[in-house]
Specification:
CATH architecture: 3-Layer(aba) Sandwich
GO molecular function: 3-dehydroquinate dehydratase activity
Number of helices: 5
CATH class: Alpha Beta
InterPro entries: DHquinase_II, DHquinase_II_sf
Structural class: alpha/beta
Pathway: Metabolic intermediate biosynthesis; chorismate biosynthesis; chorismate from D-erythrose 4-phosphate and phosphoenolpyruvate: step 3/7
Catalytic activity: 3-dehydroquinate = 3-dehydroshikimate + H2O
CATH superfamily: Dehydroquinase, class II
Radius of gyration: 14 Å
Protein name: 3-dehydroquinate dehydratase
Distance between the termini: 7 Å
Number of strands: 5
Strand content: 15-25%
Length: about 140
């Protein structure tokens, strides 16, 4: 199985930004944790982070016919991007939405997720473990 993990704006600043919400663990630790579990599950993995909506759209388009699943934390684009929603719908790759924090118990605008309607599952408030759960879910349910 091949999984693409995409992280949106400022996820690379985890451990630096809003430690009271996101904790003190770094983005590098997140990536190492994801890579380790992917290896244990025999998943071929690629990770990608961008602060630019168009770059994320391009990456999802490039995933078409290449990846079996996508794990995405669109970050702020969760609440604003119809473009990311549309491209996830277009490629028809099983996609799991992940959020490190509990978006439903934060500001009201964070309760809105455009991408959620195109995802096979949504995971929030699990910290870094949400990414692991997402990969395991895809592996258990979509591994060809």
């Amino acid at each position: 199985m091949k999984i693409l993990v995409i992280n949106g704006p400022s996820i690379n600043f985890i451990g630096i930004r809003e430690k009271n919400i996101y904790g003190t663990e770094t983005y590098e630790k997140l990536i190492k944790m994801i890579e380790k579990r992917a290896g244990e599950l025999n998943i071929e993995l690629e990770t990608f982070q961008s602060n630019h909506e168009g770059a994320i759209v391009d990456k999802i388009q490039e995933a078409y016919g290449v990846f079996d699943g996508i794990v995405i934390n669109p970050a702020a684009y969760t609440h604003t991007s119809v473009a990311i929603l549309d491209v996830v719908k277009a490629v028809e790759i099983p996609t799991v939405e992940v959020h490190i924090s509990d978006v439903n118990n934060r500001e009201d605008f964070r309760k809105i997720s455009y991408i959620r309607v195109a995802c096979v599952k949504s995971i929030s408030n699990r910290g870094f473990n949400g990414y692991i759960e997402a990969m395991e879910y895809l592996n258990d349910n979509y591994n060809k």
